[in-house]
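Moderator note: this is an archived Q&A kept for reference. The question asked for a predicted structure of one protein chain; the sequence and the answer are reproduced below.
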Amino acid sequence: GFDMLAIPDDAPNAENALKFIDYILEPQVAAAITNYVYYANPNTAATEFVVEEVSNDPGIYPSDEVSANLFSLRPHTPRYDRSLTRAWTTIKTGQ
């Protein structure tokens, strides 16, 4: 999975947003979030603070063997996106 934190160009409190991101990235804070939501985080410094129930769960932290077989999807072409949107519209509207 991917997580992302971003600050819009026109954010009225960009400095505070940066402070918040710094806080979220603190190892103990990142681990506390992981322990609460049962979702891995990429902060390796946080690993020592993640409870064993979470860190030992291969569904949350896959083994190196499993990780070696994972991949990211490539971006879709605009044509594919249009087809997908039309298909979902058909499904949702029944038309």
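Archived answer notes: The chain has a mean pLDDT of 94.
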